[in-house]
Write a structure and sequence with these properties.
By secondary structure, this protein is of the alpha+beta class. The chain has 30 helices and 35 strands. A ten-stranded antiparallel β-sheet has the order 2-3-10-11-12-13-20-17-16-15, sandwiched between helices. A seven-stranded parallel β-sheet has the order 1-35-34-33-30-31-32, with helices on both faces. The longest helix has 24 residues. The chain binds 6-O-phosphono-beta-D-glucopyranose (BG6) and magnesium ion (MG).
Length: about 950
Amino acid sequence: MQTIAPSIPTLDTPDLTYTDWTVIETQFSPDLLHARETVFTIGNGYLGTRGSFEEGYPQDLSATFIHGVFDDVPIVYTELANCPDWLPIALSINGETFRLDQGTVLKYQRQLDLQQGILSRTVRWSSPNGRTVDLHFERWASLDNPHVLAVRCEITPVDFDGFVEVQASLNGYPENQGFNHWELIQQGKQDHSIWLSSRTRGSRIQLGMTAQLNIVGADATPQGTSVPGYPTLSATFLVNEGQTYAVEKLIAVFTSRDVEDPLAAALSELSALTDYKTLRAAHRAAWAHRWTYSDVDIEGDLRAQLAIRYNLFQLLICGSSTDERVSIPAKTLSGFGYRGHAFWDTEIFILPFFTFTQPETARRLLSYRYHTLDGARRKALHYGYKGAMFAWESADTGDEVTPRWALPNQPYGEDVRIWCRDQEIHISADISYAIWQYWQATGDDVWMRDYGAEIVLDTAIFWSSRVDLNIKSERYEIREVIGADEYHEHVSNNAFTNRMAQWHLEKALYLYEWLLEQYPEKAAALNVKLNLSQERRSRWQDIVQCIWIPYDPSTGLIEEFEGFFKLKDIDLADYEPRTKSMQALLGIEGANQRQVLKQPDVLMLMYLMRFTQAFPYSEEWLRVNWDYYAPRTDITYGSSLGPAIHAILASDLEKVSEAYERFMQAAMVDLEDVRDNAADGIHGASAGGLWQAVVFGFGGIQLKENDGPSATPHLPPGWTRLRFRLHWRGQWYDFDLRPPEASRQNYPDIRGVIFDLDGVLTDTAEYHYRSWQKLADEEGLFFNRQANEALRGVSRRDSLLRILGDRKVPEDKLEDMMERKNLYYISFIQDISPKDLLPGALTLLQDLRKNNIRIALGSASKNAQGVIERLGIAEYMDAIADGYSVENSKPAPDLFFYAAQQLGLEPQHCVVIEDAASGIDAALAANMWAVGLGPAERVGKAHLVLPHLAGLAWHDLLVKLSELERKEASVSR
Ligand code: BG6
Ligand code: MG
């Protein structure tokens, strides 16, 4: 038996469903407004637009972020300015304004088509006066021409003839959470079109935006109106019941970062545009092409398939295809979190996806660091060091923009000093690491010569000025840093930082020799510019040899930093269940003083060195360090950067279920908002880590200097195929991986799931109890909740016999009592409806269906059929075994045999999900997999015990059962 602690918070989101290419929201929940605005972000590498509604909604956080459009702001120095909003379309239906918070929403579906980059929404709305209208919106940001955006709305009156008024606007007053960055320069109108020109207050970036409106199906000429800062095109037209009309809004946008006169450029772009359909076809074609080299195709796990595509989509829409002066913000272009600043997230987590699938984009992202070198030099100078010291948070100039202080929300809270700007210095090595990886993957010597070398060498100079020589112990040290694990500040000799610095200097030395040999003129030029004297390089060599990395050579255990092992130890299980980070629970000092990690640190180092199997990586050392650090890492609520990395390492260590659990945690971070902060924007690093988890983890890709990438797959249970492409030194490598035969035998071959009903899919177990209690009270029989526990899953007759105990009752009296109990029960279940499904039940049924797993009901109840109909899940059942199906009730296996037979499956291919001890016994007697829901005292005999179905997806279950089977197999071997 294995009991799973409910450690990963997964919101039950029955309103979010999916196919292999689309994310579908089936219901509008105002509570999820901001998180879903993030989820439904679209973009095209030039800009990103959150998924707020065309007609607006109270408290929405609509935003469009254009790469590089930063403006000054207090405390955090600079932020991406929310740009004028191109979405607004106000509809008035026979004089009533369409709004989701008024009237009645009769149907609602919003979907993001990842394959085509189109967000659409279908709404049937009944106005407060009772007029019903069907609306279908779609929007896209052209991938073919990034300066072109489009929204279209189809309008079909369902039950009236009348008139519709449309107002399509550009909102020149966008805000960054209350702060307006824009001043209006001018606006204007012409037939069919409007325009807006504005400028950021501090950085003086100009933006020109224009829009045109076209009405299809009705005779109407849009008129422009000029509300200041809100140019609008309006049209009113007559509509007939059952007829469909469309309004098409096309937008063009430029900034002074792109062209000298952005308004003129936008106007001329707009006037040259063809029609909506042609533009959309070009946009779709561009996406189709983009996916040919970006896609990851997973067979056998639809949820994982959708999730990886979703995350890649979110990366694809924020990697610029033209601009090498911008990076990718930590929250991409999808939210206000971290103000559009870039961190190591880009180089270490996001970049590999681009490096190995679209190296030109990777090159631009790295060139951004070249263009911001002067900022890094100013930072080094400010802190009294030499060379270039990259900013922990970087924006347009490369100067450090990490806020110095975080201000409290409560009136009496303390300000918190943020030390990352001063101490989290590993970023300079991380950037060099990414440069190196890009160079290895592409062989792009020219870029390395012209851009990369200067970055690597000038940051090497920084490192050599940053390390201290400890004369007593004759070693180099790096004091007062924050490693990857940000729960510990002001630490010394952080293994991650010291080893990365050592690695960096090693590579810098190699690079200099390479330059001397290949491009002596460039070497000479850099020598003059940076001073790469022999003396300087000898010192690098000396540091490489003598920098201290705290570890125990006899065991391979690395100490995260000097003194880490002396900190108070911690058992994270003591804090479960929790919904907060360990730092939130313990306080900054509390976490600082304990052996608790926000995210992998030693293990992160292991991961980065794994590619080249360099020190300290070895499989043996990985295991030793995993065993020590993984249990001490706040992997649920610490950093979102952690799970994907743990997934890869767990996969290396053949921890199948942990690898998959971490993978899914990263995959769902935004879709299911597992950390409750999707509202702030997409977790870009997690998305990039996810790609690495699939390719380097499950695909087992290794990069060999001379032979190119090769795979040693260890696919999660259920994955029958994994395909992706990698670009290596000018050549494409297509991977088409399937699980090796041996691993397939290791995993259970499950084809059907048999659900008990009462207490599993719905809470009717409680009604059975109350009905028996009522009967027992009337008959003066002893009965209580505890006695009822033994009746779970037991047939009506057997239940009554147990309640009666020794008491002998004639058959007609027995029949009468059973009938009375049933009448009470039936009166309880009268009002059952789909909302009485237990959390997670519907999602799991849908997921099983999508993965072609057969489903049966296996309930002792004679009322089962009626209950599942009322619950609205009858359509999911391929077979029904109920109180009428067999003679012998649970714990006899008969009912489940019957169900399996109806499904056409052998018992060993079936899983039973039960809440009753008798049901678990029956499943085991039937030689099926048994999953118990509820306390171990009741269902502990099951193979697997879970608290409930909430958050459980088919593959989570399969992976957990697989691990059990593997364990059993290895025990019996
Ligand atoms: C099981 C319930 O599903 O069905 C039992 O767990 C119940 O409590 C049994 O006694 C029979 O139900 P019914 O509806 O046929 O009386
Ligand atoms: Mg039950």
